[in-house]
């Protein structure tokens, strides 16, 4: 479904991603692991079109999306859940969810159906429907940004650090949700600091270090054979 070939990403003089190759097959959950600054989030931002590659190509379902705008990339079927939990704080939960379906403005029946599906997946959002998103808890906001992304009916979901800063019980809920989405057949590319939980869910993994892919393989192989401490911390 997704094929990244030799991409690099720079911020001024700093190269965050260095000529990496990566593949995500349809129906897989692939995780990107690595320390802070390894290039994981930059890779997702490049796929989503939020930043541009300085070289290489990104192919999604046989479409070259390397230079497309984020809106066009969403319309092709890629949705991203950012690390920063960017809700629209002054809008209600309901309004945030409707914005997730902006590319489907003519499909009112389908949007309403999907809204009900989101309430089934995230019951707390129905209780907070008319509450300003900025007043939700961290865990509720994380559920909202995932639900908002799902409202676009993505073929590929990009998740950037979904457990960051959440209480352990909420982290378990988020990972249960990701497992459910995977079981429903959604293709997922997951960036996650919690390597243990990510590898328990993933089919395959790539470990990034200083913008390079240090190692890759099945999740089981990475969990059992890789010295993750040396890759994360240089020990």
Features:
single chain; 235 residues; alpha/beta; Rossmann fold; six-stranded mixed sheet; four-stranded antiparallel sheet; 10 helices; 10 strands; 39% helix
Unreliable spans are none
Q: List SSEs in N-to-C order.
A: EEEHEEHEHHHHEHEHEEHH
Task: Let me know the largest β-sheet.
Answer: 6 strands, mixed
Outline: globular
What is the domain total for the residues? Answer: 2
What percentage of the residues does DSSP assign to strands (E)? 25-35%
Helical residue percent? Answer: 25-40%
CATH C-level class of the largest domain is: Alpha Beta
CATH homologous superfamily classification of the largest domain: P-loop containing nucleotide triphosphate hydrolases
Strands, count: 10
Written account of the structure:
The protein has 235 residues and is of the alpha/beta class. The strands form 2 sheets. A 6-stranded mixed β-sheet has the order 6-7-8-3-9-10, sandwiched between helices. A 4-stranded antiparallel β-sheet has the order 2-1-4-5, covered by helices on one side. It has helices at 40-48, 70-76, 93-100, 108-121, 123-127, 138-150, 168-183, 195-201, 219-225, 228-233; strands spanning 2-11, 14-24, 29-33, 55-60, 63-64, 78-81, 156-160, 187-191, 204-209, 212-218. The longest helix has 16 residues, at 168-183. The protein folds into 2 domains: 2-77 and 154-233, P-loop containing nucleotide triphosphate hydrolases (Rossmann fold); 88-153, no CATH class. α3 (93-100) runs parallel beside α6 (138-150) and α8 packs antiparallel against α9. The radius of gyration is 17 Å and the shape is globular.
